[in-house]
Amino acid sequence: MIIAVEGIDGAGKNTLVTAVRKETGADVLAFPRYDDSVHASLAADALHGKMGDLTDSAYGMATLFALDRAGAVDKLRRFRDSRDVLILDRYVASNAAYSWARTRDEGIVDWVAELEFGRLGLPEPDLQVLLSTDPDEAAERARRREAADASRARDAYERDGGLQQRTFDAYVELAQRSWHSPWVMTDDSAEILARIRTL
């Protein structure tokens, strides 16, 4: 089964994914795959100001992130109808939420779903988890992380507080709609483990 953990930058996704992995022995895959995917690498360059005006295009950036995930589609499909667990640190809802927040156009949510679940054939998750971390706290965590580790410099999205708030609001709306799977909104790994056992 596929469990996608979602949240804004600094929400604590890696911490929660690590805790769930320890308890379940699940496989973990984090998106974007900056070290393994040329599409993710190009997106990272854009977010750090190295690709001209590419970041001006929400559709262009969303396409790069979608193509990164498409590069892992065979692995993803192996878990879709399996009792083995794959935990994803970000997935398609990330593209939907950030793109909606960037464009302020709700229609882009359907475009992302058609691109990734439709044209690229990515499997829908069995459960999506939205970390309920307050955006102000998440932003402070991202700043502390950057100060402690020069390799974790915040990108253009992470430095934009308004974007992070709008993205969180978009995520909440997606969760309330049960967008493409059941959702749970929490930051408690025990609650996630309990939900996994019921799937």
TrEMBL record:
<dbReference type="InterPro" id="IPR027417">
    <property type="entry name" value="P-loop_NTPase"/>
</dbReference>
<keyword id="KW-0545">Nucleotide biosynthesis</keyword>
<dbReference type="InterPro" id="IPR018095">
    <property type="entry name" value="Thymidylate_kin_CS"/>
</dbReference>
<dbReference type="GO" id="GO:0005524">
    <property type="term" value="F:ATP binding"/>
</dbReference>
<keyword id="KW-0808">Transferase</keyword>
<keyword id="KW-0547">Nucleotide-binding</keyword>
<dbReference type="GO" id="GO:0006227">
    <property type="term" value="P:dUDP biosynthetic process"/>
</dbReference>
<dbReference type="GO" id="GO:0005829">
    <property type="term" value="C:cytosol"/>
</dbReference>
<feature type="domain" description="Thymidylate kinase-like">
    <location>
        <begin position="5"/>
        <end position="175"/>
    </location>
</feature>
<dbReference type="Pfam" id="PF02223">
    <property type="entry name" value="Thymidylate_kin"/>
</dbReference>
<keyword id="KW-0067">ATP-binding</keyword>
<protein>
    <recommendedName>
        <fullName>Thymidylate kinase</fullName>
        <ecNumber>2.7.4.9</ecNumber>
    </recommendedName>
</protein>
<dbReference type="GO" id="GO:0004798">
    <property type="term" value="F:dTMP kinase activity"/>
</dbReference>
<dbReference type="InterPro" id="IPR039430">
    <property type="entry name" value="Thymidylate_kin-like_dom"/>
</dbReference>
<dbReference type="GO" id="GO:0006235">
    <property type="term" value="P:dTTP biosynthetic process"/>
</dbReference>
<comment type="similarity">
    <text>Belongs to the thymidylate kinase family.</text>
</comment>
<dbReference type="GO" id="GO:0006233">
    <property type="term" value="P:dTDP biosynthetic process"/>
</dbReference>
<keyword id="KW-0418">Kinase</keyword>
